[in-house]
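User: I'm preparing a small set of examples for a lab meeting where we compare how different chains pack in three dimensions. I only have the primary sequence for this one, and I'd like the structure in token form so I can line it up with the others. Please keep the answer compact; I'll paste it straight into my notes.
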Amino acid sequence: MPAAQEGALHDKAGAGRRGAAPAYGAPTPQGRSTAPSSRPLPSAPPEPWSDEDLEALQSLLDEAAGPTEPLDVSMLDGFLVGVILQPRPVALSAWWPWVLDSEKGQARADGDDQDLLHLVQRRHGELRQAIHDRQWFDPWVFELDEDASPSDTVLPWVAGFALAADVFPGLMNLDEGQLTEPLAQLYMHLDPDDLEDADALLEEIESLEPPEELEEAVESLVRASLLLADVSQPRPQARAAGGRPAGPRRGPPHGRR
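Assistant: Understood. Below is the structure token output for the 257-residue chain.
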């Protein structure tokens, strides 16, 4: 499968972030039946992320900046999904440096990042559980100005996913025929020039209609992620995913734009 041009995606995603405003955001608990059952009770739904949580996470990412450029909140979310969708688990020691250094992924010898690590692992665990259970999750996507298209708005998230797919090629090395359709739903938001050796993928992208509404674009991120999970982490019995991403959250994390 093709590799996205990492530097170009990072620059474009960063340019989009600088106008960021309201967010799509935190997971919302799904209702559970109170009827008695002999089955084990499901695990409690994850605690929703408040605006303050997201602001704290973005502040910690900003504080981690220096000679390196950390991911921002939206790119981080897409990156974590790309890590989780690998056919074999990726060690924390392999993906964590890329959170702090999105350009080279070099490990840092200094700095106390424990608070940041705690929040990032919290989100990683939530996404991993949702993908394992084939449940809908709410991507961290931030609305830009009123002239921004849905594709412009989801670009940072997709760029984060593409970074993980480039750094950890296990997913892209799977059957191209099974990957093309869900990847097209994600990479349709990228500039075609950022894709290399992608004839089949580009042909599939050309057959898709760009989303007209942001809600549609956000849902397509989740749908494509769960379809990719069926390829990289197949389950004996597929079941319909429950829930839908929540509506827009008012109040973005303050920090880099």
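A couple of notes for your slides: The chain has one domain: 6-25+48-107+114-249. The chain has a mean pLDDT of 82.

User: Perfect, thanks.
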